[in-house]
Design a protein that fits this description.
By secondary structure, the protein is α/β, with parallel strands linked by helices. It has helices spanning 5-8, 19-24, 47-61, 63-70, 81-95, 102-111, 120-129, 137-166, 169-185, 200-204, 208-211, 238-250, 275-289, 314-325, 346-363, 392-395, 439-454, 460-467, 471-480, 482-490, and strands at residues 216-218, 222-223, 227-232, 266-270, 298-302, 329-333, 366-372, 399-403, 409-413, 425-427, 433-435. The chain has three domains: 31-212, Orthogonal Bundle (DNAb Helicase, Chain A), CATH 1.10.860; 216-435, P-loop containing nucleotide triphosphate hydrolases (Rossmann fold, 3-Layer(aba) Sandwich), CATH 3.40.50; 439-490.
Length: 498
């Protein structure tokens, strides 16, 4: 088999190990070692405890500090278990729009039976005194993450030493593989101090074949780490459209051209349908793919209750899932089920996009996310095609596309790079959605859309200006679809044939 650019980059996924998950995993009988002092720090001061206390003190003092911390840390980064419990209580309050001050967190810990274990209310007061300036919380959080990385490396070294002394070949192989993944992810990147950037000569000296070629997961359409948001109305077929993309790509079939491509690993994370419903939808697609689909390439996870990526423990859960599956493409949604709270508020959207960006950067996956279009506005004929929710979604993805019930695929966000997106699909055919390449059909759909938006009868000149299609071609198209054009006009009161 010819090695394609997609295959050449397949091994890159091994560099995106599950860093977050390893912080929270059991380490057998090895006792975590204290973090060694970082360069320049005096010996004899428990710098880890100081940094952890400062983070928690800042979070108790300022909601802004909470946001700074949760973009950098999870509870598993804390060395002291009680600090992890306090962190979890703070972000639980934050995610539920409850106060995050010391009194409110004290009540939350008391409700969970954790207050006495963490040292009682007096300890929360001590934490407040540990951070003189809540604006510094992010700086302290970075240090906590660095200390956690140092402990992780120290523990792995101890495990390697124990495995080597045990003479248990299977155990040695297991620990060696864990160490190899740890080195590939390189958690020590966090201890490198201030970023220095890369000079232009070194930047441009990178291997062109390795770095500058498109790292396609679907040739001509999607590259690794791309972000797609597909919108549509209820029942428009957007969920089926996304599943078709996933099943085809996992089977090594281009979802639009149906050409053979290198198969990729796909994770479908459904946040809206039950397992029973999803099985009914996926079964005919899998049957259609046949033997071309290796079951290991398509992984399904159902979270009918949705996710809360604004806070809580769903962030590390998602990180562990993606780290374990190692997908090239994650298909998920809808957006409104990714965070608890009002989906039109920026703070919830920001938390979700921050988490998703971290996932695609860490694990090297592309994202295909489903979203609902806004409801139709009274008195306005054409429904909005942008995603319902905060305005942040309008500027986030590389590709924002809308699928109409009739099969039009329209971009609501300018493409950051030109790709091979069809403009028109028809229902049925080899797959539920079939790309239409017939030039006259595509242009007729453009003319109908222009007429619908125009709101009154159009002359040939009007159509030419609105669509960019020459008058001679307009005449040819309308002659070819004369019956459909007449039926379309009949459904719009006051319309006359052009």
């Amino acid at each position: 088999m010819t090695v394609s650019s997609n295959a050449r980059h397949r091994d890159r996924r091994t560099r995106h190990a599950d860093q977050q998950g390893r912080h929270g995993e059991a380490t057998g009988t090895v006792t975590p070692l204290p973090a060694p002092p970082l360069d320049g720090e005096p010996i004899g001061i428990d710098q880890v405890a100081q940094a952890e206390r400062a983070v928690l003190g800042g979070m108790l003092a300022s909601p802004t500090a909470v946001d700074d911390a949760i973009t950098r840390l999870t509870s598993s980064h804390f060395r002291e278990p009680r600090h992890g419990s306090i962190f979890t209580a703070i972000i639980a309050n934050f995610a539920g729009d409850a106060p995050t001050d010391a009194n409110a967190v004290m009540l939350t810990l008391a409700d969970e039976g954790e207050l006495i274990r963490i040292g009682g209310a007096p300890y929360l007061t001590e934490l407040l005194a540990a951070c003189d300036n809540p604006a510094s919380t992010g700086w302290y959080a970075d240090r906590v993450a660095r200390y956690a990385a140092a402990r992780e490396v120290a523990v792995m070294g101890a495990r390697l030493s124990q495995a080597g002394q045990s003479a248990d070949i299977d155990r040695m192989a297991e620990v060696y593989e864990q160490a190899r993944e740890l080195l590939a992810a390189n958690p020590l990147d966090a201890i490198g101090g201030r970023p220095t950037g890369t000079t232009i000569d070194r930047f441009l000296a990178a291997d062109v074949d390795e770095e500058d070629d498109h790292d396609w997961i679907i040739p001509g359409l999607l590259e690794r780490r791309d972000r797609v948001i597909l919108t549509g109305g209820e029942g428009s077929g957007k969920s089926t459209f996304g599943r078709q993309v996933g099943v085809c790509a996992a089977a090594g079939i281009h979802p639009f051209t149906l050409e053979k491509i290198d198969p990729i690993r796909v994770l479908i994370l459904d946040l809206e349908n039950s397992e029973r419903q999803l099985r009914r939808e996926l079964r005919p697609l899998v049957i259609k793919a046949g033997d071309a689909l290796d079951p290991a390439n398509l992984v399904i996870e159902v979270r009918l209750a949705g996710l809360d990526l604004h806070g809580g423990e769903d962030r590390p859960w998602l990180d562990k899932l993606i780290g374990a599956v190692k997908p090239d493409l994650v298909i998920t949604g809808p957006i409104y089920k990714m965070a608890d709270g009002d989906p039109t508020e920026e703070k919830y959207a920001k938390a979700v996009v921050t988490c998703l960006d971290q996932m695609r950067e860490r694990h090297g996956c592309a994202l295909w996310i489903e979203a609902h279009s806004a409801k139709a506005v009274a008195g306005v004929k054409k429904r909005s095609i942008e995603p319902y929710g905060a305005s942040l979604w309008l500027r986030w993805p590389e590709f924002g596309v809308h699928l109409a019930p009739e099969g039009d695929l329209e971009h609501w966000r300018g493409q950051r790079e030109q790709r091979e997106w069809p403009s028109l699909f028809s229902r049925g055919g080899a797959w539920p959605w079939t790309a239409t390449s017939n030039e006259l059909e595509v242009k007729f759909r453009q003319i109908k859309n222009a007429r619908f938006a125009f709101g009154r009868p159009m002359s040939m000149r009007d159509i030419e200006v609105a669509t960019g299609i020459s008058k001679s071609t307009v005449a040819r198209v309308l002659k070819r679809f004369a019956i459909e054009w007449a039926q379309f006009n009949a459904t719009n009161p006051g319309e006359d044939d052009v």
